[in-house]
Amino acid sequence: MFINPVFFRGTMARKIVVSVLFFICFMSVSVFGSTQQQLFEKGVQYLKQNQYAEAIEAFTELIEIDPDNPDAYKNRGVAHMKMEQFDLAIKDFEKTRQIIPDLKGLYSNLGVAWYYKSDYKKAIENYDMEISLSPDSHYAYFNRAICWAELKEYDKSLNDISKTLSLAPDFYLAHCLKGDLLLARDEEDAARKAYEKAVEVDPEQAYAKTQLEKIGPVPAQALEKEPDKAEVPEEKAPQKTTASGIQKKSPPPSKEKDAGYEIQAGAYQVKENAEKKRNQLIRKGYDTRILILTRPNKITWYLVRTGIYSDKKQAEQAKAQFIKNTGMDAFVRPRGRF
Question: Of 10-14, 193-197, 203-207, 215-219, where does mean pLDDT reach its minimum?
């Protein structure tokens, strides 16, 4: 399976960019008089309350009193950013740069603004400057990696992600972006490992789990040298013919004790998704169960299976009939294993 690397223009990446922006811009570098201090605090309060037009008014009033105040410009730039007035934001950040050219965080702000204008080369130039000023800023490397990815410079993006993770090994989004980049280079196995690491870092987040579901588990033949221990399958009682007259459509499975193959109709990281697929098949008249397998890295899969067959040929025939009946993808898998 191949996924277009859209993550780095997705919601999570954008939230990271903005969070860095605000962390920087609430910090003051100026000495204020009482009136200026009141205006500055009012503007910051408006920002925190998401009242961006009011924040712009407060910082503009401060600039009229103190036209060389860098805090007023950079925070007004934040407000313009939140209102998607990117040209005005860049103008304010550039004015800040004229006043304090070596201000840490400023070039990240400019990078964010150019990113939202889709000028990724300009954004990268500013992240280069930020990294020269703050070589330990993992956010700067991460955001630059996003820009490289937009330009399809995947090797350069991966280099920045490696640096990001060397500075922040538990940065969930960096592991996710690494997975997307590896998928873009058709390195599915490596991408799977990146997403699995993301799940290990933060099992509550959904993105990496969703990507793993789309890739699917490691093919059975790739795991023959490293068998996984299976938990007790979650069995469901065989379904009777329903009142509506639906009959079972699967060929009769083998009753031999050594039967060794099953039909797999889905592989999921999220149990609810597996249950949904199982219920769909039950409604179609198939005896269906969920097999729970846990790999050595503690990643758990919920595998939707039907049928038990003594030999692979019989299972392949059953699979062909299953696909014809349901229109769903299916695979033959060893019984009780990946």
Answer: 10-14
pTM: 0.63
Q: Could you report how far apart the first and last alpha carbons of the chain are, in Å?
A: 17
Residue reference for tokens 């795991």: 223
Please give the pLDDT value at position 29. Answer: 52
Tally of residues, the chain:
338
Which of 183, 215, 247 is the C-terminal boundary of a domain?
A: 215
Say yes or no: 192 and 295 in one domain: no
CA dihedral defined by 87, 14, 134, 197, rounded to 10 degrees?
Answer: -160
The two structure tokens encoding residue 166: 């060397």
Domains: count for the chain: 2
Say which CATH number the domain at 185 has: 1.25.40.10
Q: Which phi and psi angles does 261 have, rounded to 5°? A: -135, 150
Q: What is the rounded CA–CA span in Å between residue 64 and residue 284?
A: 72
User: What is the DSSP track for 91-139?
Assistant: HHHHHHHHH-TT-TTHHHHHHHHHHHTT-HHHHHHHHHHHHHH-TT-HH
pLDDT in tens, 209-227: 988 988 887 665 454 444 4
Distance of alpha carbon 223 from its chain centroid, rounded?
A: 26
| Exposure string for 79-105, b = 16+ CB within 10 A, e = fewer | bbbbeebbebbbbbbebbbebeeebeb
